Amino acid sequence: MTRTLTVLATGPLTTVQDGGRPGQGALGVGRSGAVDRAAARLANRLVGNDPDAAVLEVTLGGLVLRAGADLVVTTTGARCSVAHNAPVPLRAGAELRLGLPPTGLRTYVAVRGGIAVEPVLGSRSTDLLSGLGPPVLSPGDVLPVGEPTAPMPGVDLAPVPDPPGDEATVRVLPGPRADWFPAEAATALTTTSWEVTGESNRIGLRLAGVALERTRTGELASEGMVRGALQVPPSGQPVLFLADAPVTGGYPVIGYVEDADVDRCGQLRPGQTLRFRGAVVPR
């Protein structure tokens, strides 16, 4: 028996993610990593891993894994298995099956010892924008599992609420190009609902709502971009950047979602609505 997990089915999308590649933006390398960082870190803590160890990020369920040895696993984020928010044994030859979560979008599967695929530039994360990291998982893939390096935490269940299925409200701060928009646009951003569209992914949420008109017609030179930025393209429909955000962008950023709230945005499904709370005042 070997410490492995064999992928039998992947659902719509399953990738390997960890804490990402921080500090390499000057080289043109984005951070990437788990979209819902809090959920991924909780999963790792529940099985005695380093908080930023590699886990599986599963979009909308459907993942099926078979254990090659006796392992300990857990899931966090969007609920779709009996092992949710609790460490459970997965015996050699047994299968872990993730169904469709009733709410939320992304589930994190942690295994004691971590997913031990080869790192790229110091991380095991799959970056869908740049193509760095291990490929998107496919049926038949065999994932190595590392050896435990710390004791189990002794926690039977983490009392963490499931992602909500209704409208979400997050805090927003003024962006560096708020002066490109009239007061009406700033008001519209924080007083109306925005629908998450089906074009959203790990790179960002594409939102639909009132078109945010600009007061300037020119274009910007490319500027640095980070997770949580609210960039407004010529359509006037904002894009909220997530884990695989580009390093630079050429459209004005009207605001930033507070970092602590960005994780919750990564659990929103197409069709859910989002509100921004705060003041985005043009200068």
Automatic annotation (TrEMBL):
Gene3D superfamilies: Cyclophilin-like (2.40.100.10)
One GO molecular-function entry: hydrolase activity
Lineage top rank: taxon: Bacteria
InterPro entries: CT_A_B, Cyclophilin-like_dom_sf, PxpC
Keywords for this protein: ATP-binding, Hydrolase, Nucleotide-binding
Record keyword Oxidoreductase present: no
Residue ranges annotated for the Carboxyltransferase domain, each copy included: 26-283
Keyword Chaperone: no
Protein name: Biotin-dependent carboxylase uncharacterized domain-containing protein
Species this protein is from: Geodermatophilus poikilotrophus
Organism taxonomic ancestry: Bacteria, Bacillati, Actinomycetota, Actinomycetes, Geodermatophilales
